[in-house]
């Protein structure tokens, strides 16, 4: 069973959190509430999230400050942030949101279909990255097995390499389809950049796997981090 992605919802108003949950429940992912910037940062200490929906206007630590803390942490700096605001202060306000690290900036009241579609893209990208990390971990085990086996490396089961290659091919196919979808829909720059980063890691993993094939020239290629 594929584990569900976690989506962090940050808003000081309970009715807004309830509305977000109603909109995003159809995605069938794990929705985590936070009623303040401090509570959001605490949740980010222990859990991994696919995307963060962050209200701008909050008492105490507002959305901009919260985003700045998120982007300063190595563990969380790459999590996509979608800012939500009830007030449109013009281009300068929007620019501040992007400067704080947001991948998108949506004014309330927002279209539920649009918000759900945007969030689903980042959930799918997150899932692909998780799959890629799993393939990289399996490949590292294969490499370590080859080192420990020494002269018996040729006796390593070819079936494992074939399984790794098939799994990677499936992820590659899904990533290519997602990239085409993003191109067709003129998607957010943040989603496109995340997809491009995923494709680069897939390419590195494919090179490393190909280097393990019998008769491959040179040593194993470095694995993507």
Automatic annotation (TrEMBL):
PROSITE patterns associated with the record: RESPONSE_REGULATORY (PS50110)
Keyword set, alphabetical order: Coiled coil, Phosphoprotein
Span of domain Response regulatory: 6-123
Protein name as catalogued: Response regulator
Coiled-coil region list: 161-188
InterPro entries, A to Z: Bact_response_regulator, CheY-like_superfamily, Sig_transdc_resp-reg_receiver
Domain of life: Bacteria
4-aspartylphosphate: modified positions: 55
Pfam families according to UniProt: Response_reg
SUPFAM superfamilies in alphabetical order: CheY-like
SMART domains associated with the record: REC
Species name: Streptomyces laculatispora
